[in-house]
TrEMBL record:
Organism: Flavilitoribacter nigricans (strain ATCC 23147 / DSM 23189 / NBRC 102662 / NCIMB 1420 / SS-2)
Full protein name: AraC family transcriptional regulator
Ranges that cross the membrane: none
Domain HTH araC/xylS-type: 198-299
InterPro entries per the UniProt record, alphabetical: Homeodomain-like_sf, HTH_AraC, Tscrpt_reg_AraC-type_HTH
Keywords for the protein's UniProt record, in alphabetical order: DNA-binding, Transcription, Transcription regulation
Source organism superkingdom: Bacteria
Gene Ontology terms, MF aspect: DNA-binding transcription factor activity; sequence-specific DNA binding
Stored SUPFAM superfamilies: Homeodomain-like
Organism lineage: Bacteria, Pseudomonadati, Bacteroidota, Saprospiria, Saprospirales
Amino acid sequence: MQHFKTLSAYLDYLELPRPEHPMLSVFSAIGEGTLPCPKESSPPITNDCYSISLKKMVKGDLNYGRTKYDFTNGALFFIAPRQVLQWDSSMVFDQKGFSINFHEDFLKGTELAQQIKRYGFFSYSANEALHLSPREEKQIESIVESIDLEYRNNQDEFSKDIIISQLSTLLKYANRFYERQFITRKALSNDLLEQFNQQLENYFRSGQLEEKGIPSIEQIADQLSVSQRYLSDTLKKETGKTTTEHLQLFLINEAKEILLNPNKTISEVAYELGFEYPPYFSRLFKKKEGISPSAYRKKYKMN
């Protein structure tokens, strides 16, 4: 897989104009003008750059990791360094919007270098893109216009600090708008929790839990066609519990049912639930329920 270590090499590959700054490029067509179009297709590639882009009325899908961004309604999307990108000739890029690309080293020595790692939307995918309202879009575009102006003026010793500050503001607004999206898409979030539980139910009933062990959160997210980070953020926002807590809750509820069968040992119950080590199951059960599995069985045993 081809990897691009510099911004210039990455833009050359995309067949886009060389940047004004060796570690930063800004393409903007918010008002007049049009965006330059990248090469029409690409096999999987990676690079050391961050990208923030707004695309409108775009046809086709862009593969980001193992999932796809759908731009048919327009979206603000974020790409992190070393994420796998791929697209084909069916992808039609609109000529309005903006694209900001910057090498990760551009942030070195700044507070944003650490802050940006905490923004989960850089690891989001597919239907998790940020869909802006008209008012939100204007706010983001206003910030981008300021960045573009500073980028194209004669850069001096203050330019980088000013651009970093504006990038930080842009990302803070994006974080706020994502919070809004989580709230306004509450029905989808609830549906995601139902799908999460149903996926675990199917896994358990098919015998895979005992045969293959407890699935990872990443495996479950893949089955639901969302990223692990988005699944975690959504469930945490709506329920106050993490994906791991929901998984443990499911296992403990199933354990309660199985423990009522007096013919199964505690170890057999643990193995049936996918635990490789029965003592771990017993510790988790006691931590969640306040009593050991054997004590629970004794308390609720069937007469």
